């Protein structure tokens, strides 16, 4: 792999995402509060790397990013067809922000369910697309 910033950050994303997937392989109903908080923290870290990979990849490809914020990057990534579903990405931003500012157990459970049902599958598909691009030598 060439020494390209987005690919380096993508490697970090892959490690973080692997840890998140490993944690999500557990039966969520059997986890205690501390374990659930650990999953949320892994999600927050994984998402932070994901949107920064998007930013770095678009910049590498020559796109000009006027506003560097997760929402702005996600919107541009959707417009430029780097991601297929902006709504899920925007929900991830909202849930990441919500979890850093609240400890409501009901919201906690909803976010854990969203990670399992929506975010993991979407991030897996996105990851596989980037891996395919790297393997093909287009990145």
From TrEMBL:
GO molecular function terms attached to this record: transferase activity
Pfam families the UniProt entry points to: NTase_sub_bind (PF08780)
Keywords: Transferase
Keyword Transferase: yes
SUPFAM superfamilies recorded: Nucleotidyltransferase substrate binding subunit/domain (SSF81593)
InterPro entries given in the database record: HepT
Highest taxon listed in the record's lineage: Bacteria
Name of the molecule in the record: Nucleotidyltransferase substrate-binding protein
Species: Alishewanella aestuarii B11
Organism phylogeny: Bacteria, Pseudomonadati, Pseudomonadota, Gammaproteobacteria, Alteromonadales
């Amino acid at each position: 792999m060439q020494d390209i910033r987005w690919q380096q950050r993508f490697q970090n994303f892959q490690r973080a995402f692997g840890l998140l997937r490993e944690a999500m392989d557990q039966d969520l109903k059997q986890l205690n509060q501390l374990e659930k908080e650990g999953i949320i923290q892994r999600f927050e870290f994984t998402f932070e790397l994901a949107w920064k990979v998007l930013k770095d990849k678009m910049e590498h490809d020559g796109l000009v990013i006027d506003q560097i914020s997760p929402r702005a990057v996600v919107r541009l990534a959707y417009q430029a067809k780097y991601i297929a579903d902006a709504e899920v990405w925007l929900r991830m931003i909202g849930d990441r922000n919500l979890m850093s500012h609240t400890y409501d157990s009901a919201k906690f459970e909803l976010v854990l369910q969203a990670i399992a049902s929506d975010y993991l599958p979407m991030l897996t598909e996105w990851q596989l697309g980037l891996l395919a691009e790297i393997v093909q030598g287009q990145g």
